[in-house]
Amino acid sequence: MRDLTEADAPRPPQGIENIIIIDCVPSVSVEKVDRLKKVLQKIFLVYGEVVRIELPMDNGKGTGYCFIEFASKDQALLAKANHDGFPLDRKHKFIINNMSDFDGFLNTPDVWESKSDEEFDEKEHLTNWLMHTHTQDQFVIRHDMQTEIHWCRKNDSAVSYAKSKWTDEYVAWSPQGSYLASFHRQGVRLWGGKNWAPQQRFPHGAVKLIDFSPNEKYMVTWSNETRNGAVIVWDVKTGENMREFAFDENPSWPALKWSYDDKYVARMKEDNSAILIYETPSMLLLEKKPVKIPSVQNFEWSPTDNLLSFWIPEENDKPASVNLMSIPEREVIKSANIFMVKECKMSWQKSGDHVCVSVERWTKSKKQTFTQFMLFHTREKLIAVDTVEVKEKILHFAWEPVGSKFAVVFEESGRISLSVYVIANGKVTLLKTIDRITANALFWSPRGRYLVVAGLGHLQGVLEFIDTHDMSTMSTGEHFMASEVQWDPSGRFIISSVATRMGGGTQSDTGYYVWSFQGKLLQKVMLDKFLQIAWRPRPPTLLSEAKIREVSKSLKKYESDFKAEDEMQTTKASVEVKERRRNLAAQWNKHREASLAKLAIRAAT
Amino acid sequence: REHRDNLERKAIIENRKEFIELQALLKHRHAASITNKIMRDQQEAEAARLRIEASERERERERKDAAEINRNNAIEKIEELRKTAIGARAFRDIKPEDLENMDADAIMQRQVDQLEKEKKELATRLRAAEKKQDYFERAKRLEEMPLLKEAVAT
Amino acid sequence: MKPIALSGHTRSLTMIRYNLEGDVLFTAAKDASPSAWWTHNGERIGSYEGHNGTVWCLDVRFDSTLLLTGSADNSCNLWDVQTGEVICSIETKSAVRACAFSYSGNQLFYSTDKAMGQLSELRVYTLADVNKPDGGNAIPYLTIPSTDSKITAAVWGAVDESIITGHDNGAICKWDAKTGALIKRVKEHSKKISDIQMKRDQTLFITACQDQHSKIFDADDLSVIKSFKTERPVNSAAMCEVKDHCVLGGGQDAMSVTTTKAKVGKFDAAFYHTIYEEELGRVKGHFGPINTIQFHPNGKQYCSGGEDGYVRMHNFDASYFEFEYDVAA
Questions:
Q1: pLDDT tier at C268, thresholds 50, 70, 90
Q2: Is residue A291 part of a domain?
Q3: Do C202 and C217 contact (CB within 8 A), yes or no?
Q4: I need a labelling partner for A499 at 20 to 30 A (CA). Which of A12, A604, C161, C278 fits?
Q5: Nearest to A555 among B132, B141, B151 (CB)
Q6: Comparison of pLDDT for B97 and C329, the residue scoring more
Q7: Integer Cα distance of A497 and A495 in angstroms
Q8: Gap from A570 CA to chain C (nearest CA, Å)
Q9: What CA dihedral angle connects A106, A110, A113 and A119, to 10 degrees?
Q10: Which chains have 3+ CB pairs within 8 A of C?
């Protein structure tokens, strides 16, 4: 409804949208007006032709604001997006508004209307969705112009909030689910709370990619349009631009990698000569100097400690090496040498206990490669390293998020198989290999134990649901042409989806399926112009390990309540359905009677 | 005259003798033919009996062969099924004498029964696991809520 | 439910129709031999030889004495059902796409394709004019040219006062069967209407459309009463006369199916509850799209004709009749 009224509101006369108003410009005397105009002209020329600059004067002195008219609305919006908050000098930081926005400001009621508790309890609002006693999870879907937040229930889903044209591009969740980011011409906006109120805006024109720090304190945006290859780090709470980085080329994403505690953010120096680590909130180089590591190839943070893993290729008879470095000490606490290395991929286990380096090595003839896993057990005193040889081509590797297993989908002479390994007592053992599967990807439950192997895309959407406890296949399913599989944060549901490819011909049967973690198909939702689906992440639990164990042991206590709740839900649903049917039948019968009566009259004449 | 009478009598006697001999001969022939016929009949009957017996033996042998083949098939089938995980469980504790009485249908039935049984067991196990997982997650969330409220308040 | 597969046609089915009693099923296909079958056992009674092109449509008079067929060989034939003889053949200037006897059986119409400067037309005759050896020269008492896109399906309206046509562009028109005046035009579909089937009491009709929808219209004011959305083009749709069920048949056509998997094309017959618009179930079987589908008049059977050249005759199981929806009292 809100959108409708917005759209219906009288539009400002043509041209007003081309004008921006800048507050906080220096109030200069008459003589200096022209000079200031020139300065402003220069600043804003990058957005296109500056048609007019007006500096209103009052008693021979500047009023501290000015109007700038551009040739088009887009230019005005861009100027606002990129120069709102622009510091002209120490004292003058531009506050830019679009002229057309002023209608909105003018319509602000004179009397302050308290907007309930929205302003005050922002924090509570951001975690509002966690407070529902029905303990369901949410996901966002986009189809056509529509963006909807759903509660996922077992056999259906209930729309919790819906909005048309919420975003120009796609939407993205922050890692703990507090915010939903929308993308616009003028920048990125964050939404959150019970009623999805706007929480923050980041004026960065035509942002393509974003990334949050793990604790949602900071956000990183990248746009290749406004300023060449600009990556900006923002403070989520204040909306402040913390630091900008220019990238010559499109950065591989994420361009900046965050430490687990949001304390550091790091990136590779372009010439691979160092890792640049910045400290928050100052965003200055840690100890004012880069971490020099000649020809470093890639690095990853531990998800639980301020520990970096990185690798260096072979050079002049010096072997390649994989290293672990503690920050801020810059101390290499482990280094392992390897030969004949083509490529290394590092993946940390979620609990930070192990890091697996998948090493692609050349055979002696240097004609072929094979893969070897190096497992660093970081919690052990000397950080022991295990190696597991896997001769085959690795299609997908993944750590069990909770627990100490890892799974690999690999291909050997056209046959695809799945192997699951377990680390116990510092030893790696192969649990089982399941041969001849149709898969190119695997997805662990966020709670561990269960996993889904999937043949996505050209493998036509075959899904196999496996319990790694006994390595049994619980069931198999198919979602034809599915291109994506996502676990809910609780490990109870899986969504497979087929989205409309943008500009890529006609994709039929777009929509999503909801499966139980055991592979029972619960819901099938087909939607035209289906674009995106994403589960809302949850923050890490506040419960202590002991408490979780206690809950696990005393499930009986909750059982009757949950059972009753479920029953009520089903009854309620069935009552609703029955009621709907009754109404439909009544309508139908009425219509039938009327038309049969009409027919009788007609036949008689 | 007497001589003539004697001669006549002799002739009569001769005639009678001849007649009697002829009668006897005829009688004998008749009897012989009857015996012959009986014997022939008996022989034929015997031959027929032998033929029937032979064919019965043949049939019996065929039947036995078929049974043997069946049994072999059954064993083969079971062995084959035993190689599959499910078959191994279905025929784990089968006795050789039971095997004698099993035909292909019975074997299949056993296999199907086992499949059904395991399917049911799996379904029950999965249902229990599903419930446990669901309740566990929900319970944790409920327990977490007061902590969340507290966290918000501070 | 074990279907009887009627194999007799050598090419794709185009239209199947039960007679009024439902003891005989008439089928038309892209081969030139429309056929008649006993519905209790699927035995072929005979075929009607005389066309030499695809037979697009057929209709049987209520008393099962006369059969009307329209063909791509530019003719519309009237047959003696029993003898299989052609009574007369009307030559047309383009392919005949739809044909039907009126409810009373005293009138008939056929519609033609748009081709080579030829408008798509609907011609209406009295049966008396046609039902004689020289009936081929009969003059239609009414000709309705379609200024819309071509007519792809057509049925008689209530008490033979009107004719309802479905068009290539998704439009549905209602015409006065006496004057040929356009009474109403609606456009509730966006693509070709493949099939229109009238409920026997002539108050409702169901459409099948390539836009993946099937809708039930009020035959009087052409308002949409019910709508069924599927995930494939619908080629044919029928309403049951006994239960509030309808069945939709269709599938991606061979050209747009990239793989040969039947699942991809969705060649199954989909049953819906007419009133609640909820899907009841699906019946698989055909190897290609279902082109034509109809319920038996007594509701105990349905038949589907497929692109695969088969007609499948299904007698419903007891469980089908036992199932009832829960409805709040």
A1: confident
A2: no
A3: no
A4: C278
A5: B132
A6: B97
A7: 6
A8: 14
A9: 60
A10: A
Q: What angle do CA A168, A170, A176 make, to 5 degrees?
A: 130
Whether A and C touch, i.e. at least 3 CB pairs below 8 A, reads as yes
Residues of A in contact with B152 (CB under 8 A): 121, 123-124, 127
* Residue A580 pLDDT class (50, 70, 90 cuts): confident
Percent of chain A with pLDDT over 90: 28
Token output for C310:
């088969």
State the amino acid at position C324 in one-letter form.
Answer: E
Q: Which two tokens stand for residue C252?
A: 């991606």
Is residue A463 in some structural domain? yes
Residue A48 in this model has a pLDDT that exceeds 50: yes
Q: Which residues of B touch A543 (CB under 8 A)?
A: 140, 143-144, 147
Parallel, antiparallel, or unpaired for β A171-173 and C24-29? unpaired
User: Using an 8 Å Cβ cutoff, are A162 and A179 in contact?
Assistant: no
Q: A–C: how many Cβ contacts below 8 A?
A: 55
Report how far residue A181's alpha carbon sits from residue C219's, in angstroms, rounded to the nearest whole number.
Answer: 50
* Within a domain: B73: yes
What DSSP line would sit under A417-446, residue for residue?
EEEEEEEETTEEEEEEEE-S---SEEEE-T
How does residue C215 score in pLDDT terms, banded at 50, 70 and 90? very high
CA distance C75 to C53: 9
Structural domain containing residue A81? 2-106
pLDDT confidence bin for A118, thresholds 50/70/90: very low
Residue A20's CATH number: 3.30.70.330
Distance from the Cα of A551 to chain B's closest Cα (Å) equals 7
Q: Cβ of A597 under 8 Å from any chain C Cβ?
A: no
Q: What is the Cα–Cα distance from C18 to C303, expressed in whole angstroms?
A: 9
Find, in chain A, the residue whose alpha carbon is nearest to that of B129.
A518
How many domains are there within chain B? 1
All structural domains of chain C: 4-322 (2.130.10.10)
C158, C327, C328: residue with CB nearest A599: C158
pLDDT digits (tens, 9 = 90+) for A251-293: 888 889 999 999 999 998 888 889 999 998 888 988 888 888 8
| Domain housing B13 | 2-123
List b or e across A454-471, with b for residues whose CB sees 16 or more CB atoms inside 10 angstroms. bbbeebbbbbbbbbbeee
Which of A124, A130, A562 is closest, CB to CB, to B135?
Answer: A562
Closest CB from A541, A559, A562 relative to B140 = A541
* Separation of alpha carbons C95 and C110, rounded Å: 10
Cβ neighbours for A518, distance < 8 A, ≥ 6 positions apart: A450, A465, A474, A475, B126, B129, B130
Q: In this complex, is the C-beta atom of B134 within 8 Å of any C-beta atom belonging to chain A?
A: yes
* C194-212 average pLDDT score: 93
- With CB atoms and an 8 Å threshold, state whether A562 touches B129: no
Token code pair at residue A409:
């989908």
Q: Which amino acid is present at A205? A: G
Does B56 touch chain A if contact means CB atoms closer than 8 Å? Answer: no
**Which stretch of A97-101, A472-476, B124-128, C179-183 has the lowest confidence by average pLDDT?**
A97-101
In chain A, how many domains are there?
A: 3
Confidence of residue C254 (pLDDT cuts 50, 70, 90): low
Residues A59, A155 within the same domain: no
Q: Does B106 reside within a domain? A: yes
Q: Do B145 and A133 touch (CB under 8 A)?
A: yes
Structure token pair of residue C293: 């589908």
> Is C220 in contact with C158 (CB distance < 8 Å)?
yes
Q: Verify whether the Cβ–Cβ distance A127 to B134 is below 8 Å.
A: no
A52 and A32 share a domain? Answer: yes
Mean per-residue pLDDT, A517-532: 89
Nearest CB among A508, A526, A578 relative to C328 is that of A578
CA atoms within 13 A of residue A400's CA, in its CB half-sphere: 20
